[in-house]
Amino acid sequence: MNSAVPSGLLLSARRAIAYSSIVLPSCRLAAVPSARILCPKTLNEIYDPTINTPHHDLNRKYSSVSSYDRPRSHILVDTMAPKEKVSFNLKTPKGTKDWSGSDALLRDRIFTTIASVFKRHGGMALDTPVFELREILAGKYGEDSKLIYDLQDQGGEICSLRYDLTVPFARWLAMNPDVRSMKRYHIAKVYRRDQPAVNKGRMREFYQCDFDIAGTFDPMVPDAEVLRIVAEVFEELGWDGRYTIKINHRKILDGVFEVCGVPQDKIRPISSAVDKLDKMPWADVRKEMVEDKGLDGAVADKIETYVMQKGARDLLEKLLKDETLTANASAKAGLDDMALLMEYLDAFGVLDKISFDMSLARGLDYYTGVIYEIVTEGSAPAVDSNATEVKTLQKSGKKEKSKKSTNLDEDDRSNDPTVGVGSVAAGGRYDNLVGMFLSKAQIPCVGVSFGVDRIFSITKARLEREKSADALRSSEVDVYVMAFGGKGFNGLLKERMDICKKLWSAGIKAEFSYKIKPKLPAQFKAAEQASVPFAVILGDDELAAGKVKIKELGLEEGHPEKEGVLVDLTSLIPEVKARLARKNSGTSTDSEAVAGLAQKLEGVDVKADTTAKTADAGI
Amino acid sequence: MNSAVPSGLLLSARRAIAYSSIVLPSCRLAAVPSARILCPKTLNEIYDPTINTPHHDLNRKYSSVSSYDRPRSHILVDTMAPKEKVSFNLKTPKGTKDWSGSDALLRDRIFTTIASVFKRHGGMALDTPVFELREILAGKYGEDSKLIYDLQDQGGEICSLRYDLTVPFARWLAMNPDVRSMKRYHIAKVYRRDQPAVNKGRMREFYQCDFDIAGTFDPMVPDAEVLRIVAEVFEELGWDGRYTIKINHRKILDGVFEVCGVPQDKIRPISSAVDKLDKMPWADVRKEMVEDKGLDGAVADKIETYVMQKGARDLLEKLLKDETLTANASAKAGLDDMALLMEYLDAFGVLDKISFDMSLARGLDYYTGVIYEIVTEGSAPAVDSNATEVKTLQKSGKKEKSKKSTNLDEDDRSNDPTVGVGSVAAGGRYDNLVGMFLSKAQIPCVGVSFGVDRIFSITKARLEREKSADALRSSEVDVYVMAFGGKGFNGLLKERMDICKKLWSAGIKAEFSYKIKPKLPAQFKAAEQASVPFAVILGDDELAAGKVKIKELGLEEGHPEKEGVLVDLTSLIPEVKARLARKNSGTSTDSEAVAGLAQKLEGVDVKADTTAKTADAGI
Questions:
Q1: Per the similarity annotation, which family is this (chains A, B) (predicted)?
Q2: Given this model, what pLDDT does residue B584 score?
Q3: What residue segments make up the domains of chain A, in order of their start?
């Protein structure tokens, strides 16, 4: 075994944070014992990017790793292969997770609900590649661009993982000049190298469900329909009014800043500071403006008088009477838009869901008009990260986590009370983004993005608290085909296969034991564990008489069919179908299950931990 | 503007193959004019990997690029921004594409069909991250590992994009030791840096639809169910027998190689050579064995007598009588498995779809038992890439392409007659893969993966040839809400909004014009373009009388409702619903559309170009 010290030692040390001890037969990787204090940032600074040692050069092997250095969240595997010791970090990458069982099913139902609203409004599906040429994404996300995942240069094009679905949509519009208007929806994963909080749905890989309307239309009409879609989605998810659509307008904000005397070059940075008002008190935001961003204190104080205001039509009317403000062209245009929008929202029946919130600014650079963010009480404010009791909580939260949640990364913030679920949907108007790709194809757009992982987290937490989670099965099988017999019983495998074949051919979801001679109790247990509602039971005598038994599982004592009913083999399919239809007249077919989701979730209170604090990095 | 020559000039030259001229304000990139003859492979060889120049160092700018050097497939954009010239390559990365309109809808329907079969067999959904820790993928794919996409090291874990869905499933099983058996399905994109042929569905980013059964069961029972699933999927897609399930067994192959005298260390390389028999004549494969892989010519000739055989039960019986072969333990075990499998396939009614093909070897390392590949005549064999007429065809194909298909990459192989669609599904048994992650969790598995992009390409080509593509709409809107009026007509915008609100609340898919005062012909045109079946028409007089008109579009002259019917506003919803139900008793609701897909595709002949040649890199 070659034990030369790797040429890229600093590199190895940096990698050791992620790996503990890795030696693979086909592609040897090794790491020096990981340093206790070094954080990736620090190491990045001392890392020399010109040393790009290929992995197969790093074949120094360390057989022992201290228990401290080994990430607690990982299953570290040592398998003794005949020739060589093989060790893996058996985990998903930081900030990502697997979805399975009832979680996957619940999330799928959320997707289906959202997609059905999108289609109801004429949305057309668009699917784009998960990575884009890097220059497509460059210059679109402001400060957040540092969170973009890059693909390695392997001798072709330079690409990055998509950061959202909006920029790829704009790129698509620019590439398809025949399309001048479109309602498109896109449900797909996006990628951000942010600090994760897995249990709160703050992930590095997460789903967005986007609906956007592109095209030149009369003002605020598509904007109003997008907000109607927002309301329909949350109503159909059963949130029943327990959400708020915060709206504001970039032109109003810009007008306010101009009127207050913010220099032109400081408008975007000051806007970013204002956007933090859902996470910090005004005093902290003012401090950032004055101390970090060099704004005159008097100007900051003027800004306060505007941005702390919230309301609805009343606030709009008040602002329209503010002659200083309406003398500013940008503010006036924004206020006129807002007046029209509120009229249309009234016609669409969603005005009562709206909060006109002048502190809403949105981080992304590309918005140009109305902006919105949808929050629930789970998204929400209130814990001051500077308060000493919070620091104590954060610490104890960390300790508790390392004991309890072995599946979380060391620096996951799921148990940090200053981190909230954040907004569950957000969006706005972006009239210049398509033009950034193709100036002659200046197509104005407006849209919204739903953060499904967050919606899922809030929904699931509530379902668990209400113990209704067990109502969601992880598979949808309707019939378990079993066999039983006495002495000389051969298991009837091919007969079970034949019955399954007939059920499948009739579109009925069915399964059977893969054992040649399964025991009857084991078959019943398997059916019950998967909550399969019906058993079809084969026996030698019954088959000889051309009969088979159908038994509904879980019937109460005394039910006339408690012991099952014998039916002719020839009428098995219609008999099973009739019973399924009767049973499922509630919620069990695919489409009915989806329709029933709202009903099921209806009882779910979407209030979440009041200890949670909002942050909007996820959307 | 800094015009220093980039320090990594060779690197730039290499990048120039992908880019022509790229200068971004926020992240400047430039390239030297691309070399005409250099191919990436050649450049890779002279590229010094220790020079890893960051992009912002490559800021030399070329303002003119010769028309030859500019990739024909790209829209090259020059926007004159006030300060700086901005140029983009407006395209998706090589080997990837956008999906929209009726293509996206047709593909979605294929997904739905496949997923419904998976659920019918008790499949549970699993979703894993698009990237994995690199060491999870290492050592799993043999020679193909070079096709894995790596993420850039940005100071965290070292990750790669998933290459298939099988290894992530095995990783998940190893991480979830409580799960000892499972039927899981997974429909998601995978990534391979292969040479693309976009129009034939050979992509770098493509979907796989996987179904796998994990667990220790009686032999060949789950294997048989997987093949039953294969048959159900293609039957429901309407392929109606126009496909072949080629099967073989790794143990039979290994036994054959042993019996013929292949040294142990040459078994996998020789197996790889045999796997090319669907693309090359035996003479070429023999040459590879003898000249490239150093096999004794006499041994190769013995191999020929076995691997050129195809058949069904007859072939199995013949082999079972071959005493040299059955004396080999591996071959005997494989043949016994195969005999049992055929019995079960008979019970499942799929034996007639099977071809026992001794030349099938499959490229991936991890298979240990039965292996299979599903081909159609579009996958298929026959053009010898060495024949001179083929070389002419390839050349003329390239020329033709550059004129016609402006959306293809320069080196896309869509029009190369020696490239076929390849197999449309493939899989097999892999009993040791989970154990590679966790030796104590040795869970045997068997599964199959459907290549949806290829299935889509074959289906679409046929639909287009039969001009049935227009039957597939790109949105599913059922009602277009319009208004008309004479002098003083105000457009009835809010009234249209109100009607839409009512339709949406009733779950009806509806849209309206975003113009304040749209013209009636324009509204009809929009409805017709989107093939919306019904119009709801508002007029001042009718509204005053509490009435509204419903008009079915596209009715023939003389139909009693040709001019539409006036209904009470209060009964609009039930009146619309009744008409929709009548209209859709055919195929128009979501679930019915899916169910009707098979019917629609039934008439589709899946034979594809006989000029196509198979290759199995995609699955």
A1: Belongs to the class-II aminoacyl-tRNA synthetase family.
A2: 78
A3: 101-382+420-466, 479-586
Pick from B24, B47, B501: CB nearest A139: B24
pLDDT band of residue B412 (cuts 50, 70, 90) is low
State pLDDT tens for residues A62-117.
333 333 333 333 444 443 344 444 566 899 999 999 999 889 989 998 999 999 99
Name the A residues in 62-81 with CB < 8 Å from any B CB: 75, 77, 79-81
> What is the per-residue DSSP string for B414-475?
TT-TT-----SEEEEEESSHHHHH-TT----EEEEEEEHHHHHHHHHHHHHHTT-GGGS-S-
Alpha-carbon distance of A276 to A283, in angstroms, equals: 11
Largest Cα–Cα distance of chain A, in whole Å?
A: 96
Whether residue B253 is predicted with pLDDT greater than 80 in this model: the reply is yes
Q: Measure CB to CB from residue B156 to each of A94, A101, A105 and give the nearest one.
A: A94
Query: H or E segment at A306?
Result: helix A297-307
For B484-497, how does the pLDDT look when each residue is reduced to its tens digit (9 = 90+)? 998 889 999 999 99
State residue B237 phi and psi, 5-degree precision. -80, -5
Question: In whole angstroms, what is the distance from residue B485 CA to residue B478 CA?
Answer: 23
For residue A346, give Cα distances in angstroms to A105, A233, A316, A335, B491: 36, 18, 14, 17, 17
Q: List Cα–Cα distances, B96 to A152, B177, B181, B204, in angstroms.
A: 17, 37, 35, 6
Strand partners, B356: B247, B311
Please tell me if the domain spanning A101-382+420-466 has the same topology as the one spanning A479-586. no
How many whole angstroms separate alpha carbon A396 and alpha carbon A400? 6
Pick from A29, A47, A98 the residue to mutate for testing the B interface (most B CBs within 10 Å): A98
Restricting to B residues 18-47, those with a Cβ less than 8 Å away from any Cβ of A are 18-19, 22, 24-27, 29, 40, 43-44, 47
In this structure, which topology does domain A101-382+420-466 adopt according to CATH?
A: BirA Bifunctional Protein; domain 2 (3.30.930)
DSSP conformation class of A170: H
Residue A127 has its nearest CB partner, among B99, B131, B217, at: B99
- Tell how far CA B172 is from the center of its chain: 23
pLDDT at B462: 74
Q: Do A510 and B120 touch (CB under 8 A)?
A: yes
- pLDDT tens for A434-480 read 999 988 878 999 999 999 988 998 888 877 777 654 456 777 899 99
Looking at residue B89, its pLDDT comes to 82
pTM for the structure as a whole: 0.76
Strand duo A479-484 + A534-539: pairing? parallel
Helices (H), A176-247: 221-236
CB contact under 8 A, B218 and A511: no
Task: For residue B453, give every residue at least 6 positions away whose Cβ sits within 8 Å of its Cβ, in sequence order, or none.
Answer: B107, B201, B202, B203, B206, B207, B618
Find the distance separating the first CA and the last CA of chain B, reported in whole Å. 48
Q: Which of B295, B399, B321, B312 is nearest to B352 (CA)?
A: B312
Predicted confidence band of residue A497 (pLDDT cuts 50, 70, 90): very high
Residues B115 and B110: their CA atoms lie apart, in Å, by: 9
Average pLDDT along chain A: 78
Residue B155 pLDDT > 60: yes
Distance CA B201, CA B282 (A): 27
Buried b (16+ CB within 10 A) or exposed e, A105-119: bbbbbbbbbbbbbbb
| Model confidence pLDDT, tens digit, residues A112-135 | 999 999 999 999 999 999 999 999
Q: Shortest Cα distance from A351 to chain B (angstroms)?
A: 13
Specify the CATH superfamily of domain A479-586.
Answer: Anticodon-binding domain (3.40.50.800)
- pLDDT tens-digit readout, B544-594: 999 999 999 989 999 988 899 999 999 999 999 999 999 877 544 444 444
Total count of residues recorded for chain B: 619
